[in-house]
Amino acid sequence: MLISRLFRSLSRPVQRLLPPGLGLLALSFTATAQETPNRSIFPAPAPADTSATNDPQQFATPSVVGMGPSKGLIFHYERVPRFNVSSNGQVVGLRDYNSQATKNARLFIKGYIPMINHPHLKLILGINYEREEFKFRDRPTGYELYDNIENKGLKTLGAQLAVIRPVNDVNWYIIRTKGELSGDYTSSELSVRDYLRMSAEFLYGWKRSPTFSWGLGVQLGYTFGRFSPYPALLYNRTFNKRWGVEALFPARVTARYNASPRSLFYAGYSVDGLNYIINLRQPLRREGSISLNSLELRETEVKFRTRWEREIYDFLWFGLEAGYRYNYAFDAFDRTNNNRIKIIDSKLANAPYASVELFIVPPRRMLRR
Predict the structure, then answer these.
(1) What is the DSSP string of 14-64?
(2) How far apart are CA 114 and CA 130, in angstroms?
(3) How far apart are CA 356 and CA 11, in angstroms?
(4) Cα–Cα distance measured from residue 278 to residue 293, given in angstroms and rounded to the nearest whole number
């Protein structure tokens, strides 16, 4: 989709969180298409409305009637209130630590640019900047891990390339690859080799009707902690003019309620996985082994959430979200060996959270063309 306008200015809190400059990381990914399954298994999709296009041939896509508008530019801020934290040293020479986090905030900015936007092929470039901040009750904490992530913050700067390729009026596939620089780096010490993290996705699907599309595939990334592949099931379905489901199982499942074309409600869960590289200012010394100058921090959480999206103006929407965060892991690993031995086992107490979002969508007059 096209982005009609961009914000000319950001609020002061957002400006303070941005780095001095944002670089773009361009990556590419190729995959071999799988053989098309026997189409007689599924009934042909219902005929789509061709009044808005001069192309008599219809092409299948994973989206269905009733889904919210495509997002072109997104500004998102999320906050978790005070909660307890505890860390247990997993090797000899590392001590345990208990404290309280007085702040855990996240800001992310995402943008999507359509490089090719044809009915039979869509190529989309995405860029993102994210920053996660922690503040602890006792400062400095005297604990190497917490002192490092509090003073620098955890940043992610990335780019992705997505290919949406309709095969015919029933079948489609998606290929996506993403590269991110994730860690506690600053602009003066950024090293692509140290901080680069890659992920990829392939889905092949069937469009059974304008209200039902599903697909199977594989995702490769850090959603569940360590870098690993896992199966993915896409299921988008609209049951009637009010209710629908949007899912990419097991990463997220969401029920949708269309209150009106300009107001949508969601409820469900999502699994978020982050992987950061932490450069320690003071080497971490453990008994009978080499000192560590860096750690790999794996953060995994499950969010049970409700969300409201509402149109403000033709191209401008906002989103409000609230829910409960279940922390599955916040662990530090030794990067000096292939086995990635766990050094620190941490637990962030479960807590409620809230977020606010502002995003730009294509104007309706553009969609009606």
Answers:
(1) HHHHS-S-----------PPPPPP-GGGSPPPPPPP-TT-S--S----S--
(2) 21
(3) 13
(4) 9
229: left (phi over 0), alpha (psi -120 to 50) or beta: beta
Place of tokens 């896409």: 234
**CA–CA separation, 123 and 113 (whole Å):** 9
- For residues 112 and 126, the answer to whether their CB atoms sit within 8 Å is yes
Residue bearing tokens 């979002």: 357
Domains and CATH numbers, the chain: 66-367 (2.40.160)
- In sequence order, the β-bridge partners of residue 260 are 263
Q: Which of 128, 83, 122, 119 is nearest to 103 (CA)?
A: 83
Q: Going residue by residue through the chain (369 aa), what tens digit of pLDDT does each one get?
A: 433 343 343 344 434 444 444 333 333 333 333 333 333 333 333 344 433 334 445 789 999 999 999 999 999 999 999 999 999 988 767 788 899 999 999 999 999 999 999 988 999 999 999 999 999 988 778 888 888 888 778 999 999 999 999 999 999 999 999 999 999 887 677 778 888 999 999 999 999 999 999 999 999 998 877 788 999 999 999 999 999 999 999 999 999 999 999 999 999 999 999 999 988 877 777 666 667 888 899 999 999 999 999 999 989 999 999 999 999 999 999 877 666 788 899 999 999 999 999 999 988 766 555
- Residues 6 or more apart in contact with residue 292 via CB below 8 angstroms: 280, 283, 284, 285, 286, 334, 335, 336, 343
Residues 275, 45: Cα–Cα separation, whole Å: 41
What are the residues facing 129 on neighbouring strands? 109, 157
271, β-bridge pairs: 302
Helix H or strand E segment including 156: strand 154-166
